[in-house]
Write a structure and sequence with these properties.
- It is a single chain.
- The chain has twelve helices and twelve strands.
- It has 327 residues and is of the alpha+beta class.
- The protein is globular.
- Among the domains are: 48 residues, Uridine Diphospho-n-acetylenolpyruvylglucosamine Reductase, domain 2, CATH 3.30.43; 105 residues, 2-Layer Sandwich (Enolase-like, domain 1), CATH 3.30.390.
- The structure holds flavin-adenine dinucleotide.
Length: 327
């Protein structure tokens, strides 16, 4: 590992200023992703700005919904009574990720910012436009079993690996950030980006901006009764999703008033299935309806040499998640 400086930040403004002053400084939260990347030489910061002392851990009800501080750990969020009661989909998604030890360290802000698990990104001997812009994409013609079905480009076919993000996009979360120019709120669907010509940028956050928290609208708690997070992976624990589905239904009897659906493991960003949601509105819940919704969701999917199985796995996962949620 390369030598680096370490600063413990006691104030939000000071933490942001540290990144303004030093172009190679990075925020450090739980360290479960950043330290791994540093050990492998994928990220080489000159300074780590430890943000753990900042007062960004609070989880509380607000007039418009629920506020979750950026430094709340994944375990604290998943186990919090307000989350369990109002937004159980988020708890299910978080608990499907990593291991209890990791969830005790990993924070909300860090989870939003975690990098892809594409092997070519981690392997310094291989080309990767995300790690080394302009070097090429090793996965495009390589071993692309974990890779994208939607929204990829010729420069990158990596996927966002987070489970939490899939629930947050389905629940219409908003990301709150603070930077040298002030504060702003970013709708969750606009926080992560597609690779396009610049796969080195995972999201729309400026380098000097700090995530302060995430809010969930009160309206999303209408889905608390019928939710499911289905994660399909190579082992039943401690593995990233091949495909995951967050499903939430607001129902009156057997009629679907409204649906929320998103997939993980299929795109560079958590992939909201708006057309399928629209289709489900007003329909009677049942396997035939769910199969039609899944077919709509898969329109435009493009597989590569080794991930063609996802073209079957993904719609089946959507149907199963909807069936479980509606039951
Ligand atoms: C073995 C293993 C298995 C895993 N399995 C899963 C899984 O199945 N599902 C899943 O979803 N995740 C999984 N993870 C990933 C894990 O959830 C992330 O590593 C974790 O969420 C990152 O959070 P952190 O607080 O440790 O971030 P850090 O490692 O501290 O930081 C990660 C990045 O976020 C930036 N950052 C952190 N906080 C902020 C902030 N407030 N504002 C701006 N930038 C910030 C840092 O600068 C850094 O670039 C796994 C990780 C490991 C090591």
């Amino acid at each position: 590992m390369n030598p680096f400086q370490y600063t413990r930040s006691l104030a939000t403004a000071g933490a942001i200023q540290s990144l303004v002053k030093e172009p190679q400084a990075h925020f450090l939260a739980g360290g479960t992703n950043l330290i791994d990347l540093m050990k492998m030489g994928v990220v080489v910061p000159e300074r780590l700005v430890d943000i753990n002392p900042l007062p960004l851990k609070i989880i509380e009800k607000t007039v418009s919904g629920l506020h979750i501080g950026a430094l709340a750990t994944n375990s604290e969020v998943a186990d919090h009574p307000l989350v369990l009661q109002g937004y159980p989909l988020l708890s299910l998604a978080i608990n499907a990720g990593a291991s209890p030890q990791l969830r005790n360290m990993a924070t909300v802000g860090g989870n939003l910012m975690q990098r892809t698990r594409c092997n070519y990104f981690f392997d310094l001997t291989m080309p990767c436009n995300k790690r080394a812009p302009g070097s090429g994409c090793g996965a495009l013609e390589g071993y692309n079993r974990m890779h994208a079905l939607f929204g990829a480009s010729d420069h990158c076919i990596a996927v966002n690996p987070s489970d939490m993000n899939v629930a947050l996009v389905a629940l219409d979360a908003v990301v709150h950030v603070k930077g040298p120019k002030g504060e702003r709120a970013i709708p969750f669907g606009a926080f992560h980006r597609l690779p396009g010509d610049h796969p080195e940028k995972d999201n729309t956050l400026e380098r000097t901006e700090l995530i302060t928290g995430v809010t969930l609208p009160a309206s999303s708690s209408a889905f608390k009764g019928r939710v499911h997070y289905l994660k399909v992976r190579d082992r039943s624990s401690y593995a990233f999703a091949l495909v995951s589905v967050a499903a939430a239904l607001d129902m009156e009897g057997t009629t679907i008033r409204e649906a929320r659906l998103a997939m993980g493991g299929v795109a560079h960003k958590p992939w909201r299935l708006f057309s399928a949601e629209q289709f489900l509105k007003g329909k009677t819940a049942g396997v035939d309806t769910f199969k039609q919704a899944a077919a709509i969701a898969m329109q435009g999917a493009k597989a590569y040499q080794y991930n063609k199985f996802k073209l079957i796995l993904a719609p089946n996962a959507i149907v199963e998640a909807l069936q479980t949620a509606s039951a």
